[in-house]
Amino acid sequence: MSCFTTKFADELIANAAYIGTPGKGILAADESTGTIGKRLASINVENVESNRRALRELLFTTPGALPCLSGVILFEETLYQKSSNGTPFVDMLKSAGVLPGIKVDKGTVELAGTNAETTTQGLDGLGDRCKKYYEAGARFAKWRAVLKIGQNEPSELAIHENAYGLARYAVICQENGLVPIVEPEILVDGSHDIHKCAAVTERVLAACYKALSDHHVLLEGTLLKPNMVTPGSESAKVAPEVIAEHTVRALQRTVPAAVPAIVFLSGGQSEEEATRNLNAMNKLKTKKPWSLSFSFGRALQQSTLKTWGGKEENVKKAQEAFLVRCKANSEATLGTYKGDAKLGEGAAESLHVKDYKY
Amino acid sequence: MSAFVGKYADELIKTAKYIATPGKGILAADESTGTIGKRFASINVENVESNRQALRELLFTSPGAFPCLSGVILFEETLYQKTSDGKPFVDLLMENGVIPGIKVDKGVVDLAGTNGETTTQGLDSLGARCQEYYKAGARFAKWRAVLKIGATEPSELSIQENAKGLARYAIICQENGLVPIVEPEVLTDGSHDIKKCAAVTETVLAAVYKALNDHHVLLEGTLLKPNMVTPGSDSPKVAPEVIAEYTVTALRRTVPPAVPGILFLSGGQSEEEATQNLNAMNKLDVLKPWTLTFSFGRALQQSTLKAWAGKTENLAKAQATFLTRCKANSDATLGKYTGGASADSAASESLYVKGYKY
């Protein structure tokens, strides 16, 4: 094979396939301490460890939610946290058939000489870190590369750097038993139309898969986490069916069938938008050799956060709001979402923040 | 899109899809004058235009053969030839649902500084030539790139040059209404095992699809003509099921689902081997988002040539032989071939020629 041989091959393939189980998807709960601070600030909650732990416990103990999830991405701190009755979060997730994942990148830094384009860091000592995370119970990882659309962006340098960074991260993960989620996010910021987004997405994904091939990555043991193909944030919105058509076509042109599942990021979309778009993709009658699912952060948690407000007495209501989004997205992976989810407060609210920094 | 969508886009997509119809495949009858001379020499037939015309007429008027074929690749001379009662070959083919194609490359030349590696020429005035061929009735084209396996081959240079040549050829064809068949043949010559062939095939195909993306080629309006993944010619043979597994895995890892069909070259395989291998691939119970069919030259014509031997009195026998191979391969595209189509020993004869030069 052009891919490397690893003792973890069978396990990687099985885990990647499991994450793509129809009816399930990923909860991205890997907000760094800084980022979760912004979320907590928006609901007037203090950014201390006990609150961060309480939020994640709220999510993971929501009755009926875990069957909608095949995985949860965690931040390092959370990987080692426990529920209030002392059960490690990873054990709680595993016994409910939810694979724990871990964010392993160390954020973005600017590429000198470009117009504020970035590359992602985190390769130093990554192999050792992955080993430790595997020992702690993680079975997949995530690394976010970021590109933007502009007059001259993304540049060939930005595309190449980010693609090859993703590839190097991916093979190091596989050497250490973690399924790498490959995330080349093209930001929605801008006034470009959907055709431009499609063109850039196709170009970026083609570069990613060339890089993965060069680095001998086992595609059957990876997942892709791309942006949906949409108009820019400053352009007129289009229907979910249009987003579905452009997105799936871009993927058909670039993502090999060996990749078992594609789990979309939600970017700045509202909870309801993200669900409807995913649903439209799964209703589309066309060649889709990979399953299409979700890996949502804000688009799964927004109304839950607002309902919770950091208050113990709101936990039950907040959990109900979380379950509503989990179920809606679970149905969307099957193309059966009827758009009738009881909209929690803020479910239709755009989550776009210009030039969003994680 | 990142793909070039010119005035021929819809037609290209339709033609490519038609050529990939399950149950049909391509007859590669594009032997150059020099190459057909070698074939004729082997059956003691003089290499003159009338004989070349007679052979092709034999093939194109075989009763019952047309339904098994979606296309025929022609050499330039043949594109302008007629049947003995004056009907242009292209008209005869089109009237019977068989699309005429044209070989447009001008053979290989050595890459200086390499160990006998080559690149393919033919880009000069290719656009103008394609326009002429389109007017003459051609609707698809073929360009053969050649790579070999050795201690240090294929080199990065050879892979890049051949991939880029294919991409440039492909886009020029599309600009002029011809569906490009992309053919990156990795020769069987050598003592390597099937895993080596798989690794090289995957690396080459990954480079080819990156190049096609770079050149804005519309994948839905292309076809792929790859080698099957097999052990080297000096290595022990393996079962068709093994060839099928390695070949389909390699394709799943590299060929985007947007490509409608994959038509295998037969290389030096015997008629029967080629059919059995194609059949095994179509029986394989794994998701294949493109149809798998044939584009055979020698593996469709070998026993027919022997049966004909240039004599008019052998016409019916030769045509019956040809029909047998057409039907066998048609069945193989549906995974329905049950083997032993010809009692003819010629069907099992290896067609391998070391260092084969077209």
How many DSSP E strands of chain A?
A: 10
CATH class of chain B: Alpha Beta
Biggest pleated sheet of chain A: 8 strands, parallel
**CATH topology tier name of chain B:** TIM Barrel
Side by side, the strands of the main sheet of chain A go 8-7-6-3-2-1-10-9
Portion in helices of chain B = 40-55%
Please give the CATH architecture of chain B.
Alpha-Beta Barrel
Query: What is the count of DSSP helices of chain B, taking H or I runs of 4+ residues?
Result: 12
What is the CATH superfamily of chain A?
A: Aldolase class I
Q: Distance N terminus to C terminus of chain B?
A: 37 Å
Uncertain regions spanning at least 5 consecutive residues of chain A: none
Provide the β-strand percentage band of chain A.
5-15%
Taking Cα atoms only, what radius of gyration of chain A do you get, to the nearest Å?
19 Å
Question: Care to give the gist of this entry?
Answer:
The complex is a heterodimer of chains A (358) and B (358). Chain A is of the alpha/beta class and 358 residues long.
Verbal overview:
The complex is a heterodimer of chains A (358) and B (358). With 358 residues, chain A is of the alpha/beta class. Chain A has one domain (8-334): Aldolase class I (TIM Barrel). Chain A contains 12 helices and 10 strands. In chain A, the strands form 2 sheets. Chain A has an 8-stranded parallel β-sheet with strand order 8-7-6-3-2-1-10-9. A two-stranded antiparallel ribbon of chain A has the order 4-5. Chain B has a single domain (8-347), classed as Aldolase class I (TIM Barrel, Alpha-Beta Barrel), CATH 3.20.20. Chain B is 42% helix and 14% strand. Chain B has helices spanning 9-19, 33-42, 49-60, 76-79, 89-95, 126-136, 156-175, 194-214, 240-252, 271-283, 298-308, 315-333; strands at residues 25-29, 69-74, 99-103, 108-110, 118-120, 140-147, 179-186, 223-224, 261-264, 291-296. Chain B has an 8-stranded parallel β-sheet. In chain B, helix 7 packs across helix 8 and helix 9 crosses helix 10 (271-283). The chains are: A alpha/beta (358), B alpha/beta (358). The A-B interface holds A 1-3, 195, 198-200, 202-203, 206-207, 209-210, 213-214, 219, 249, 251-258, 287-289 and B 1-3, 195, 198-200, 202-203, 206-207, 209-210, 213-214, 219, 249, 252-258, 287-289. Chain B: It is found in: Cytoplasm, Cytosol. Chain B: InterPro entries: Aldolase_I_AS, Aldolase_TIM, FBA_I.
